Amino acid sequence: MATPPVTERGRRARGRIVAAAAEVVAEKGALGASLDEVGARANASRSQLYHYFEDKNDLLRAVAEATNEAVLDGQATLFEGLGSWDGLQRWADALVLLQEQRSGSGGCPIANLVAQIGERDDDIRVVLASGFDRWQSSIREGLAAMLTSGELRSGTDVDWLSASTLASLQGGLILTQARRDPEQLRLALDGALGLIDGYRTVS
Fold this sequence. Notes:
Blueprint: H1 8-32, H2 35-42, H3 46-52, H4 56-73, H5 76-80, H6 85-101, H7 109-118, H8 122-149, H9 158-179, H10 183-197
Helix pairs in contact: 1-2, 1-4, 4-7, 4-8, 6-10, 7-8, 8-9, 9-10
C-alpha cells in the first residue's frame, strides 16, 4: 500500500520521483517509461517507489496531476488578466510565443497524456479532463468579468464562448505540433478572439 508523505523530506522525495517520471514519459512515452529508469533519474530505490506509489499506473496518475498543475500554473498570471480584451490578447500572444520558442514542438502536455494514457485508464483520463475543465473555467471567469463590466453584450453565452476558445486553442496546438508551425496556433486563436470580438460592446 502506497503511503502519502507526511514530512517535508518525504514530500520532496515524492516530488522528485514524479518529476523524473514526467521527464521519462515526455521522452519515451507512457508505455515506454520504466520504473527502473524513473528510479535511476530520481535516485530512488524500488522500495521507495512502492512506498509512495502503488504501481506504475498510480505513478502515471501523479504525473497527470503534476502536468495539469504545470500547464495551469504557468498561465496563472495571464489568467488574472483575462477580464479584459487586452488581457485576452496578451494571453493569446504568450501562448503563441511559447510555441515559437519551442519551434512548434511539444503540443499540449495534457492532451499528449490523454492520447497516451487516457484511452486505456479511465481514472487518469478523468484527472486530465479536470485539467481541461480548470482551463476552460479560467477562460470563462475572464469572459464573465468582461460581461459584468459591460465589455461584452448582455446575454453573451460565456459558457459556450469559453468552450469554443479552449477547443480552438487545442486544435491550434495539435496543428502546430504536427506541422511544426506556430502560425497554426496564431490562426486558431485569432479565430477564437474574432468570435469573442463579435460580442464586444466596443470594438
